[in-house]
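anyone seen this seq b4? input:
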Amino acid sequence: MDSKLDLAVGHLNAATGPVVRPADLALALREGTVAHIVAGQKTRIVRGLLHSLFTEIDPALILSCAREAKTDWRHAHQLYAETLADGMPRVKAWEQLVADRT
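predicted toks r here
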């Protein structure tokens, strides 16, 4: 796997098989939301897996994925806020990374 997006998606898909695509993760990071992710009958599963990003993936890798997706930490943080609103737990390591940038 050459891509950071591929690496992160491989981890997110570990329990389910190839459901989330690197393009899905890139779009979610660029848009700061999973609302635009469409995956047919698997849309709900893909969105749920993407919401687990911050609890499953190291913040440094998430930042690398954001850069690869041609976006920044601010858009990724919008996605993080959406995950919290969806009931995902807070991730202190991500919050510290954002605090260090503001």
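The chain has a mean pLDDT of 94. The first helix runs from residue 4 to 12. kinda curious what u guys think
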